[in-house]
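dude i think i finally got it to work??
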Amino acid sequence: MVCKQLARCCKISLTGGCLCLAAVYLVAVPGVTAGLLRQAPELADRFWPWLLLVEATALPCILVALWGWKLTGEIGRGNAFSGESA
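look at this
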């Protein structure tokens, strides 16, 4: 029972972290870069490559979140210290 409560709490925390991550990568980064482009229009040719590079840094975060979700599932089943979790 404690394992299921811990897993639920971890999943809630992980979901909150993913929502914050999505807000940063989908709202804040494009907004800041668009503002920079308005201030320095001479950088327009470098805008998309850098925006795509910064957005690509979200990939490792997504992979870690997926791994964490899988791990919390194992915790909920009581297999926190199994070989599969390691």
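DSSP finds three helices and no strands in the chain.
im so relieved honestly
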